[in-house]
Design brief:
The chain has 327 residues and is α+β, with helices and mostly antiparallel strands. It is 31% helix and 26% strand. Helix 2 packs antiparallel against helix 3 and helix 5 crosses helix 8. The radius of gyration is 19 Å and the shape is globular.
């Protein structure tokens, strides 16, 4: 097994001199913020509502506010991040100058979910942070395939880890995993995260979100029954980040969040779907809109509250599940 390497060394091997701020400041500081958020969770004796709601009407927890503040401080410390929005504050706001004089400079937009999985925080399950990094001064009305150039999934559990995807223009993309020590020191513990061909794995995994929708959609019920009859192993916690990362750790898995007439789409395209889709594609997998069958990254995000369904994981598994739901 290869020895872990430090994050700056690994980023230097992946990012050319054309993106020095991304390499030297944006990604390292964002990765450090994951450790900060994990510290807030560990040192919060309880998880309580603070009596406010975000713009989408979701009740805010004390740890939601702390996670948001941690990333906002990182944004303030990165001159190249000129615009940001989040699930807690879903309005793109320019924090720094984006005048015509800045055209051609290295500038980025951040779209993030500071703490994904609020419903399972109280029982102390693993949750996550989702971050998408977009080139330019806005993530809206842009082609995700080319403008979202990096994403981070921070896993906040017994250990703190992060999965990072990077796909600069003209490259096929890369995906790697970072581990954290107690003091915040970071190491690249897996320099090349890749999903495995389904035919090469001994254990196949499935994560069926919103299983209640199976009572409304016979196709979803049939798909779940097929997984059971073919002896797939259930791995579903109700947390989007840990359920997706489980597949990336094991090398196999398919996550399904269907959309039906009664069960509307819940996952926000800007803050959840697009970053996860980039991770999956850079790891050799697929991320599809469960309502249309299209790649998540095919369609520009026009509004911060756009939502969609998701099927992601090993490419052949995701495509087979998609075919079952659309037949």
């Amino acid at each position: 097994m290869s020895q872990p390497v430090d994050v700056p060394t690994h980023l230097n091997s992946l990012i050319a001199s054309s993106h020095p701020q991304l390499r030297d400041a944006v990604l390292p500081k964002l990765l450090s913020s994951i450790h900060t958020i994990a510290g807030h969770l560990r040192t919060s004796p309880s998880v309580t509502q603070v009596g406010t709601a975000n713009a989408f009407g979701d009740d805010q927890l004390n740890v939601d506010v702390l996670a948001e503040e941690a990333i906002r401080k990182t944004i303030d410390a990165c001159p190249a991040i000129v615009t940001a929005s989040s699930e807690e504050d879903p309005v793109e706001k320019s924090s720094k100058s984006t005048s015509s004089e800045d055209q051609g400079k290295e500038v980025y937009t951040l779209a993030f979910d500071p703490l994904d999985g609020s419903s399972i925080i109280a029982p102390n399950w693993s949750v996550g942070t989702i971050i998408g990094v977009w080139e330019g001064a806005s993530a809206l009305h842009q082609p995700p395939d080319t403008k979202q150039i990096a994403s981070i999934l921070g896993v906040l559990g017994p250990r703190t880890t992060a999965i990072v995807a990077l796909r600069l223009p003209g490259t096929k993309g890369s995906c790697f995993e970072v581990g954290y020590a107690d003091d915040g020191t970071m190491q690249v513990i897996r320099p090349d995260v890749q999903l495995t061909q389904a035919s090469e794995v001994k254990t196949r995994y499935f994560a069926p979100a919103n299983m209640r929708a199976a009572a409304e959609d016979q196709r979803y019920l049939n798909l779940i029954n097929r997984f059971i009859m073919q002896k797939y192993t259930l791995r579903y916690s109700g947390g989007l980040v840990p359920d997706v990362v489980h597949a990336l750790v094991k090398g196999h898995g398919v996550y399904i969040s269907p959309v039906t007439e009664q069960s509307k789409a819940k996952l926000r395209r800007l803050y959840e779907l697009a970053p996860i889709a980039l991770i999956m594609e850079c790891a050799g997998g697929a991320a599809l809109d469960s309502a249309t069958g299209k790649r998540v990254l095919e369609t520009a995000v026009e509004d911060t509250d756009e939502r969609g369904g998701l099927i992601c994981g090993n490419k052949e598994e995701a495509e087979a599940a998609m075919k079952s739901l659309l037949q």
